[in-house]
Amino acid sequence: GDSAEGERRRLVQFGLESLGLGAPVASLEEAQPGDFVQFWRHSASGHSAIFVNWSWRGDEIVGITYWSTQGSTRGIGFHTEPVGPEGVDPEAIYLARAAWPVARPAD
């Protein structure tokens, strides 16, 4: 149903939060390098990655740089994509921040 589809679209948030490993980032402006990001393009394709930064034009987000693996980097690397009508849907960007474990493993 709609709930399952919504969870799939924001799986990075749902997974960390439901397992007590982190929390959603409240707004795009609060994103920090190292946050987990899941985004969907207007073409309906999506990607999960590690957020690096935004590209801005004035007060508008016009690009996203992330670190992940994809064909264009021939493995792990940085990639920048446009945010807007021809690229990533700004209404379909989901960020989550991992939390420090409550108990750290013994050394």
User: What is the H/E string?
Assistant: HHEEEEEE
Given the C-alpha coordinates, what overall shape results?
globular
Average of per-residue pLDDT values: 88
Report the biggest beta sheet as strand number plus sense, adding barrel if it closes: 6 strands, antiparallel
Biggest sheet: strands side by side, in what order? 1-6-2-3-4-5
Percent strand equals: over 45%
Q: What low-confidence regions span 5 or more consecutive residues with pLDDT below 50?
A: none
Number of strands: 6
Number of helices: 2
What percentage of residues falls in helices of 4 or more residues?
Answer: 10-25%
Cα-atom Rg, whole angstroms? 15 Å
The SS-based structural class is mainly beta
Distance between the termini: 45 Å
Secondary structure elements and pairings:
Elements: H1 2-9, H2 11-18, E1 22-24, E2 36-41, E3 46-57, E4 60-70, E5 75-82, E6 88-98
Antiparallel strand pairs: 1-6, 2-3, 2-6, 3-4, 4-5
Helix pairs in contact: 1-2
